[in-house]
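Quick illustration for those who missed Monday's session on complexes.
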Amino acid sequence: MSYLPIQQVLKQAPVGTDVTIKGWVRTKRESKNAVFVAINDGSTIHNIQAVAETGQLAEDTLKLITTGACVAITGQLVESQGAGQAVEVKIANVQIYGSADPEKYPLQPKRHSLEFLREIAHLRPRTNTFSAILRVRHALAFAVHQYFNDNGFYYLNTPIITASDAEGAGEMFRVTTLDAIKPPLTEEGKVDYSQDFFGRETNLTVSGQLEGELGAMALGKIYTFGPTFRAENSNTTRHLAEFWMIEPEMAFHELEDNMNLAEDFVKTVIRYAVQHCADDLAFLDNRLKEEEKTRKKEEQSEMGLLEKLQFVISNEFVRLTYTEAIDILVNSKPAKKGQFQYEVKWGVDLQSEHERYLVEKHFKKPVILTNYPREIKAFYMKQDADGKTVRAMDVLFPGIGEIIGGSQREDDLDKLVARMQEVGIEPEALWWYLDTRRFGSAPHAGFGLGFERLVLFVTGMGNIRDVIPFPRAPKSAEF
Ligand code: ATP
Ligand code: MN
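Prediction with adenosine-5'-triphosphate bound:
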């Protein structure tokens, strides 16, 4: 049986034609003369209403049309008598694909908490909220590829299993085929990874950047967009153990070019979502407004979701150095009143409370911070002439904090090696990375955008676990 996605039926099927739709029952309502069934197939936030006259459907069939059941319905598309929809399907035939025992089906047509829905992540895509999020997520992913393709970047697939720790933070998941109970040991009693699958210790990647740089030194402009893993036991609303990262890397780009690209890139993909996900974003905007009503007045945000997206697209990001930001923070009200949880002074890594103060209270705009102290940034960042700072840039967003982290890279071999030795990374272990500085080195820059943080911002959700289909976090890998 050929059928049309509900999205197409609602948008373009002519009234009077016969259509077949297939989807999951959201609600069934019976009145004196008719039975109304609302069906959704995931192609749009909107349900389609199908109507049968009372007594028209066999009792057995009617009983199986319950919330969650999957059905195929054929009938004429007619103008709707009721309010709320322009058209509806006059049921001629119903086929039940799969019933859903109403006693057991966990998704009832009422508001469920996000916490509860996380426990049924296998079913939550069938809710309005999660189907909207997943469609927006798809649109953003598409826009990412489109942006880079339009701007002359090549999509480079960097390895997921690696033997290097790009961030030097050591929060990695080990990949091994060794016996977990009795691994082979060396003479010193340590695990003998030379007997492991790859003949060495390997992990899931925390970033594709190092290999991305190799690509940029050959193809000019590349980007990666792939799964990334961090075993950080942080349990925050902004961290996942498995997330998707977008990492462009460009030859002949310096810090300023890097900032320009980052700003243009995020604005362009957000604009794409605003233009192509109008219905879903309107729904999420509304959802957020309802949620805000339950909050205290002072915790409510001044802008709605759509306003906030428009605001980011149409305003220039504020750019300032880390040193200037520290000045602002040290002299801020919360610092003077001791309201920051973490101390703020030159040299410390900014905490999310500091980032959010700058963005939400002080500038009320997205902010790009540059030239951080070298001690708190990765070894590969280009050192400034003052010997104190590096050409780093972090993009900070309202409600999120850091959404992008990037830098111009150190292209001078001697400086890079010296820095590695200072922080205790053996240059020999990264001989292949250093070869790009030995042979045809060039100024280059890049950044990493956590895809879920972008989806979080665009959907207005509050927890990163709600913007990826099956979240991976400490003690959570069920689905
Ligand atoms: P944070 O300080 O927020 O932990 P980070 O400094 O560790 O971020 P980077 O190493 O610069 O982040 O990674 C680049 C980007 O990847 C970040 O700007 C963020 O968008 C994203 N990101 C980092 N860690 C996570 C995570 N655990 N889950 C989801 N996204 C992440
Ligand atoms: Mn981190």
